[in-house]
Amino acid sequence: MNAKAIVVTSGKGGVGKTTTTANVGAALAQLGEKVVVIDTDVGLRNLDVVMGLEGRVVYDLIDVFEGRCKLKQALIRDKRVENLHLLAASQTRDKSALSEERMRETVTKLVDEEGFDRILIDSPAGIESGFQTAASAAEGALVVVNPEVSSVRDADRIIGLLEARGITEIKCIINRLRPDMVRRGDMLEVDDVLEILGIKLIGIVPEDEKIIVSTNVGSPISLDKEKSGAGDAFRSIAKRVQGQEIPHSALESKRGLMTYLRRILGIG
């Protein structure tokens, strides 16, 4: 992807946006990029917890917006990967404190003054001010979707909103895929999801219990040297973001819920 500022979004909550932001950001940093991940979920921040940095947050995004600190003061460097940084959301303010103009200014400073190669912006669920602020400074987007009807429907709407903002580099991450359920026809297959959404795939992350463990201990699984399906998938996504051609794992599947999906979405 050519985009330096990338919003990670979905529309629907609980699909794995924050976990994706942390893991892809960490993997990109391991590949040598200077990366900052930004949490825009004001009042409900979680990115700091997923990254294990919650105890080090002093200043946050709203402090930067309102001039209570300099941008550099709010950036938390991850001690595990020297060129990985976090800009946390505020826990005590509400979404009225968000500003699209300030967001654009902040991202510009991160690139021009702080020298970041990549900025991943973790969008809150929904399509209201949090999403609008997160998307306002983005040049590209990673749309995280679970292979289920409600998630795909919400993602379809989000893609329309991103395109309306002129964001053209939009890629799909299919998260929590269970090949056994796909084979039984109980879960949407990859081709079905991509056909409906009309965007290109950048990664498939399998359901992996190690993700729960890594989230609870605050250590992105993409930093774990021990082999895991999800860790490998996030590292591959990071390489594809950089432009490397990494083949997707072949997954057996069969047509299962496509007819139902088309009826729900009013397509065909």
Give an overview in words.
The structure is a single chain. The protein is α/β, with parallel strands linked by helices and 268 residues long. The protein has one domain (5-264): 3-Layer(aba) Sandwich (Rossmann fold), CATH 3.40.50.300. It is 40% helix and 16% strand. It has 12 helices and 8 strands. It has an 8-stranded mixed sheet, sandwiched between helices. It starts with a strand and ends with a helix.
Quickly count the helices. Answer: 12
Main beta sheet: 8 strands, mixed
Oligomeric state of this protein: single chain
Top CATH class: Alpha Beta
> Percent of residues in helical segments?
40-55%
Name of the CATH superfamily: P-loop containing nucleotide triphosphate hydrolases
Distance between the termini: 32 Å
Order of helices and strands: EHEHHHEEHEHEHEHHEHHH
What class, by secondary structure content? alpha/beta
The overall pLDDT, averaged over residues, is 90
Radius of gyration: 18 Å
Query: What is the CATH topology?
Result: Rossmann fold
Strand element count: 8
Overall body shape: globular
Strand proportion, as a percent range, falls in: 15-25%
Number of separate structural domains: 1
CATH architecture: 3-Layer(aba) Sandwich
- As laid out across the biggest beta sheet, the strand order is 3-4-2-5-1-6-7-8
| Spans of at least 5 consecutive residues with low confidence | 251-256
